[in-house]
Amino acid sequence: MTAIRRFLPGWLSSYAVLYLLFLYLPVIFLPIFSINTAATPKFPLSGVTLHWYEDLPRTPALIDATWNSLIVGVSASILSTVLGILAARSITRYRYPGRRAINGLIMAPLVLPEVIVAISMLLVMLQLGLSLSLFTVVLGHVLVCIPYSMTVLTSGFEGFDRSLEEASADLGESAFGTFRRVTLPMVAPAIISSLLVCFTISLDEFIIAFFLTGTEATLPIYIWGQLRFAAKLPGVLALGTLLLFASFLLMTTAEILRRRAARRTQNEGGLYA
Amino acid sequence: MTVAAEGSPPLRMAGSRRSPLLQSEAVQGFALISPTFVYALILLVLPILVVIAHSFWTQNYLTIDHTFTLENYRIALTEPIYRDLLWRSLYISLTVSLLTVALAYPVAYFISFHGGRHKSLWLFLITIPFWTSYLLRVMSWKVILGYNGVLNSGLMGLGIIDEPSTALLYNSTAVIITLTHAWATFAILPIFVSLEKVDRTLVEAATDLGDGPLRSFLRVTLPLSAPGAISAALIVMIPTVGDYVTPKLVGGKDGVMIANAIQAQFGKASNWPLGAALSVTTMIIVSLMAGATVLVFRGLQRLAR
Q1: In 10 A of CB B259, how many CB atoms?
Q2: pLDDT at residue B175 is higher than 80
Q3: For the domain that residue B254 is a member of, what is the CATH number?
Q4: What is the number of domains present in chain B?
Q5: Domain A60-272 maps to which CATH number in 3.90.1150.30, 1.10.3720.10, 3.40.50.720, 2.102.10.10?
Q6: Which among A124, A146, A163 has the least Cβ separation from residue B46?
Q7: B58: how many CB neighbours lie within 10 A of its CB?
Q8: In this predicted model, what pLDDT tens digit does every residue of B59-101 receive, in sequence order?
Q9: Among B131, B257, B283, the residue to mutate for chain A (most A Cβ within 10 A)
């Protein structure tokens, strides 16, 4: 029996490492084939080149798509974070009837099939006579970003010591002063983390943008268009690699900030007062 | 600095200065959440109601006929093409969710019970691939499984096969592999959370009372972590049934799913009411399947005890 117990963790850890490889496998091929000279992605590589990367800034459609994605990403992340702050604060601080149901509704886009969410919004927008544009894409992205923003912010707001705010008010600080000098510094990392997470999601989101955009393409829509042409694949891989690193950087920063936020409110709250 | 250390001062009666109504916790909490709530009502609940309404109407070219009819549902449920697509979508999403949970459970178990100091590092490593574009991940699978793909050229290089296999890409297996990969993180996290909640002293007690590692796992850890496994299965099942990108890119003709048909009704085919009826049918059937899954899991959980 003890033999099994000693043996098991070894087995499990090799399985876990294999699983991790499975998770990373497809992701690793993007950068590898993006520096391949041949257009077809197969081994062995025919040669190493940065040619595909050099072509990227010379593609006007790609530049446009990048701008569109940035505009949508920044607007969606700010809007969803503001709505996320309000909801997360309400959920973590107040108790009231219907709180769980409302929370469930706000989190629902996380588990609904995206196509159905997208076509429902499309129907309503067309009924309301809204013309499809980047604005409608932003509206859609905000809906799917809020659950993620909520998750990040609730973990930052939970355990937030109310007595700190009360103390500040007792010491003569106004409501706004308390918010600016006590609340905000403690939750700032969580807020920035939420902004980064939402930006990353919006940057990568395809289905909703695909249905709700008019003529302007975002980056994933541009990529989708390019996928039809086999010859364009290396360019897409190069672009994908850049996006991969951008997402990676954003998410690592967001995670570090989220942890700092959780630490501040939970363990060392007093230090920052 | 020292305020927190001294402990919070005794609470003053909060309602003394403002009207009791505004001070009431319920009203404040509700007021604070209402913008987000209203946003979700307008952009999620209202649209879904509009879709449900459309599913009972018909379309004559560009105008919608608002007479109530069940014709769209009859088509959705009896036309062989839609019936097959629905069945295939359900089969794929059920397979993917069970496979993902089965593959993810040991990893979550390892991190929770043997992760030691590196728990959060492991979790972070598992989340990173998820944060890369979904579109790009699906595309990479296409690169791996394709005719000239990595797997084929690798197998040929090793002399295992003589010519590229076409069996890898453009079928429902390719869809299942890709989706199992795409949803892995979503399965690991809820299972991990429920494993973390398992009281370790119970496992020790079972061992002390003579249960071997396998028996104590089956009788203590597994039933206690079942809620996590159930929610993981649902989190994977419900969205994958309506996946559009994966079947479109790696599914080929044999891997088409219901979402592709729904999209076609709102695009080329331009029959909104039928598209709406297909969406509603998909949602209802996947909810039923989710409910059935919960019941089966609960039954198994009871059996294990």
Answers
A1: 29
A2: yes
A3: 1.10.3720.10
A4: 1
A5: 1.10.3720.10
A6: A124
A7: 18
A8: 877 777 888 889 899 988 899 999 999 999 999 999 999 999 9
A9: B131
